[in-house]
């Protein structure tokens, strides 16, 4: 598909705002299930720590963008591997790495140029090469599983679709579709089932994601008054540096939530010697 990066971005940004942000905004209801965030002060303490971590990541990005970009790619792969949490480790890793590495391997020039908007070019090129190499290595567990098992399990089918999508779609569009369909919806469904009140969690998620989306739009509007020549670059930075910053507290919470409830992202209970479905929380 032939779509220039600015047009891809115009599709990606609203997709992320509507379908991507709410899965992270469930972090507040998740924290309320993990700890007794008593009263307004309990919630405010949690929000202050969450926002503090976000600001810390943005500060690191401003000081050392090359290091921050590489770290973002690495922890994103780790976070995305949770989408195949009930699966054997090699396939789980192959999935998390492919979400980043497949577009880097199949569209190297475009991905290097996009990374170049987020970090200085030499560091962006190194990050793009490393992501492409990781992508190539991620094919090995998939190919071995196919060769040994000789049957198409659900994770194998999902990974094959992921690779075909990465091949057919331009990188930003591929990422938007993976992130908003597989990652966000899977995480959203498995988390909301564990909430005492799904309706309340949904309203909280909508409210918090609107705040984050508004913050991103305001950043682009204010900055483009000073430099109207680069709205695409500012938009890309708002989305990806924003996601990089949100991911750190988001990952910490999701890990704790999954471990505390012994729940994998595919909505199953890990009993140590097998996987069994967990009953939904009663209201
Ligand atoms: C709770 C809370 C809140 C909210 C939150 C939220 C809303 C969250 C979200 C979260 C999220 C929402 C997350 C996400 C994540 C994401 C990620 C992790 C991504 C990654 C990506 C990447 C890494 C990419 C790459 C690339 C590029 C850049 C280009 C093209 C190619 C590729 C694809 C390779 C607030 C702050 C209000 C307050 C406090 C509390
Ligand atoms: Fe997530």
Automatic annotation (TrEMBL):
Subcellular location: Cell membrane
Record keywords, A-Z: Cell membrane, Dioxygenase, Iron, Membrane, Metal-binding, Oxidoreductase, Transmembrane, Transmembrane helix
Domain of life: Bacteria
Principal place of residence: membrane
EC supergroup of this enzyme: oxidoreductase
GO biological process, one term: carotene catabolic process
Binding-site list for Fe cation: 23, 79, 183, 187
Cofactor(s), names only, from the UniProt record: Fe(2+)
One of the record's GO cellular component terms: plasma membrane
InterPro entries hit by this protein: Blh_diox (IPR022270)
Cross-referenced Pfam families: BCD
GO molecular function: beta-carotene 15,15'-dioxygenase activity; carotenoid dioxygenase activity; iron ion binding
NCBIfam families reported for this sequence: blh_monoox (TIGR03753)
Protein family according to the UniProt entry: Belongs to the Brp/Blh beta-carotene diooxygenase family.
Protein name: Probable beta-carotene 15,15'-dioxygenase
Species name: Aquisalinus flavus
